Amino acid sequence: MSTVSKRQFLKSLARTAALSTWAGLDETLAKVANVPSATLARKEDFWVDIRAAYPVTKDFIQLENGYYSLAAQPVMDSYLKHIQRINSVSSYYMRTRQFDDKRESQTQLARLLGCSPDELIITRNTTESLDTVIGGLTWKAGDEAIMAQQDYGAMQDMFKLQARRHGIVNRTLSLPNHPKSDEELVSLYEKAITPKTRLLMVCHMVNITGQILPIRQITEMVHKHGVEVLVDGAHAFAQLNFKLADLGDCDYYASSLHKWLGTPLGAGMLYVRKDKVAGIWPMFADSSVPDNDIRKLNHTGTHPVATDLAIQDAIKFHERIGIERKEARLRYLQRYWTDQVRHNPKIILNTPEAPARSCAIANVGIAGKTPAELAKVLLDKYRIFTVAIDSPPVQGVRVTPHVYTTTAELDAFVKALNELAI
C-alpha cells in the first residue's frame, strides 16, 4: 500500500468513526447550518461525510433502497443496546416499561406526521397498516372500492379477499406514467366513483415509478362524494417534507418506517382519523380497550419491542439531517441520473419529467430488454443492484438512491445504461 493510499485509508477510517457517533454527526452538520438545502444537495463532500454514518456495502452499488433502507450506525448502535438492556431484565421490562416506552415512540411519530398520538399506532409495515383498514371496515355486498393498477399488490390482494368474503366490487384504474396535470389525475379517480363507492385507496408516491400524486386535491374531491380515502404513504413519509394537514384531511394514512425514516427492519405506522376509529374492527380482540380507542387496533401480543424504541433513535437521526435537506438531496440524485438518459431513444423512463412529480425513486427500461434481463445484467456485469418491475404499463427496473448514494455511483449506472442501450 502506498503512502498516499495509506493516508487516504486512515482519513476514511477516521471519518467513519466520527460519523458513527451522534457527536460526530452534529459536528459535521454544524458546518453547514446556514447552507440552503438546494445548495447543499449538490455539495458532494458533505454527503460523502454523511455516507460515513451508514454501513454501506462495498460488494455492489446499492440502488434498491426502496424495499428497506439502511439504518444509520448510531441508530443501529442504540438498537443493539435496547436489545441487550431489555434482554437483561426480560419480563420485568415487558411488564413495567414496555407500554410507556411505546407510547413515547408513538407520540414522537405523531408529531412528525402532524396528528394526535391518539390517532396513530405502530405496526410492522405498510401492508399490515393498510390491511388493518381494508379488512376492518364493515363491508356489505355491492359496496365498491377504487384503486389503481399501480398500487401495491398485497393491498390489491386484500381487496380481492373482501370481494370473496363480503361480495364487494373492486374498480381498478390505470395511472398515466406521464400525467399532463393534477386535474388529469383527479378526474381519473373521480370518473371511477359511483353511488356505491365506499373507499378509495391512493398512493402518495407510487412505489414502482416514484410518481407523486396530488393527494390533497384527490382527497378533497373524494370527500365531496361522501367517500373515505385510504392513503398508501409507504415511500412518502420521511422522504417528502409534509404534514398530514397538507393532504386534505385524509381518513387513513399508512407507512413503513424501515424505508425512509431508517428504523431497523419491521416497523410501520397507521393513522386513523379520530372519528373513524370506532368503525374499524380490530384484527385481534382486546376487551380492555374501548371501541373508540385506536389502541384496539394494536393488540398484537408479544413482539420485538426494541424496534419500537429504535424508532426514537431513527427520528433523532432523521431530524438531525433535516427533511428539507433530505428531500432536496434525494430529488437531486434522481434528477442527476435521469436527466442524463432521458432523451436517449432506446432508454424508457417511466417516471414523470416534472421535478415536483417525483423525488428519489425512478423507473427505467431499455428497448429490447425485459425488466428481469436488465436487472440481471446490471448486477452480473456492472455490480449494480436494482429491482425488476414487470407490471404493464410499467416495465423497467426501479432505481432508488438514498442520502448515502454518491454521484460517482450514479455515473457508473448511467454509463451502464448507455452501454446497454446501443
Automatic annotation (TrEMBL):
Residues 73-384 form the Aminotransferase class V domain. GO terms for molecular function: lyase activity. Keywords: Lyase, Pyridoxal phosphate. SUPFAM superfamilies: PLP-dependent transferases. InterPro entries: Aminotrans_V_dom (IPR000192), PyrdxlP-dep_Trfase (IPR015424), PyrdxlP-dep_Trfase_major (IPR015421), PyrdxlP-dep_Trfase_small (IPR015422). This is Selenocysteine lyase/Cysteine desulfurase.
